[in-house]
Amino acid sequence: MTEQIKECFFCKTQNTVSEGVLNCKKCGRELFNYCDNPNCQKYSKTIPDDSLMCPYCGTYSHFSNKSYFRNLKCVVCSHEETTNLDAEFCAKCGSLLQNKCTNSNCVMNNGFEAELGPHDKYCSECGEETLFFKKGYFTKDK
């Protein structure tokens, strides 16, 4: 393999890829998506990074099998989509997709801001209002 530059599909970091380098230097995720079906002509060969399924045989791709993607339903407009793990905004209305505690001293924010449930108004650890609640995605009585 000759040296090339490959942008990580997930964190967008530019990586210099050479023999034996297959993971992103920043987030650690694999840099190449491929078909997991041993009967497919593209088995273990790269396919587009955003492909959830192999375009040749229809089998779920390596990235989708590794849970790099997830199904999300926007709490504001109810749009459902399959997106990568790092997606922050709804593709339809632009609302936030990840609910978090707003207290910077909470254990739920210990350096990585653990995600709370999409319908949580208050953090279960500290009782602070969640990001979705502060943004007005729900009212106090709903």
- Give me the strand/helix succession: EEEEHEEEEH
Shape: elongated
Q: What is the count of helical runs?
A: 2
**Unreliably modeled segments:** none
Give the biggest sheet: 2 strands, antiparallel
Distance between the termini: 57 Å
- Structural class assignment: mainly beta
Walk across the major sheet and give the strand order: 1-2
Please estimate the helix content.
Answer: under 10%
Rg calculated over all Cα atoms:
19 Å
Q: Whole-number average pLDDT? A: 79
Descriptive overview:
This protein is mostly beta strands. It is built from 2 helices and 8 strands. It has a two-stranded antiparallel ribbon with strand order 1-2. Strands 3-4 form a two-stranded antiparallel ribbon. The model has no long low-confidence stretch (mean pLDDT 79).
Layout of SSEs?
Blueprint (H helix, E strand, L loop, with lengths): L3 E4 L6 E4 L15 E2 L11 E2 L14 H4 L3 E5 L6 E5 L14 E2 L14 E2 L14 H4 L8
Antiparallel strand pairs: 1-2, 3-4, 5-6, 7-8
Condensed summary:
The protein is built from two helices and eight strands.
Brief descriptors of the model:
elongated; two-stranded antiparallel ribbon; 142 residues; mainly beta; two-stranded antiparallel sheet; 2 helices
